[in-house]
Amino acid sequence: MPDLEQEVIRGHEAERIMRSPLWNEAWVVYEERLTSSWAQSGTDQTDQRERIWLALQIARKVKNHLESIMKTGQLAQKQVEGLNHGK
């Protein structure tokens, strides 16, 4: 049960972060800056373009990971509720 409870806690924290207006604003601004920097870079700036592109992909993976933690926490919450109802 402690593992499920930890997943629930992590899920709640991830959800709290991702529902924060500050997180959403920061994410939009960061993604726009990276996308704009990439679009404005010259085709001869291969290394810079690659770094910007990789930064954008890594940022998206971080966001997806937080979303995954949130969903895992929601599933764990349902499991805990199911165990508690069965008692």
Explain how this protein is built.
The chain has one domain. Helix 1 (2-19) crosses helix 3 (46-85) and helix 2 runs antiparallel to helix 3. Helices cover 90% and strands 0% of the residues. The radius of gyration is 19 Å and the shape is elongated. The protein has helices at residues 2-19, 21-40, 46-85.
Topology diagram in text:
Blueprint: H1 2-19, H2 21-40, H3 46-85
Helix pairs in contact: 1-3, 2-3
Which terms summarize this structure?
87 residues, mainly alpha, 90% helix, elongated
Instruction: State the total count of DSSP E strands.
Output: 0
Which class do the helix and strand fractions yield?
mainly alpha
Could you tell me the strand content as a percent range?
under 5%
Mean pLDDT equals 86
The number of helical segments is 3
- Mass-distribution shape: elongated
Listing every helix as H and every strand as E from the N terminus to the C terminus, the arrangement reads: HHH
- Please give the domain count: 1
Helix content: over 70%
Radius of gyration: 19 Å
In the predicted model, the low-confidence regions spanning at least 5 consecutive residues are none
Overview in brief:
The chain is mainly α. Helices cover about 90% and strands about 0% of the residues.
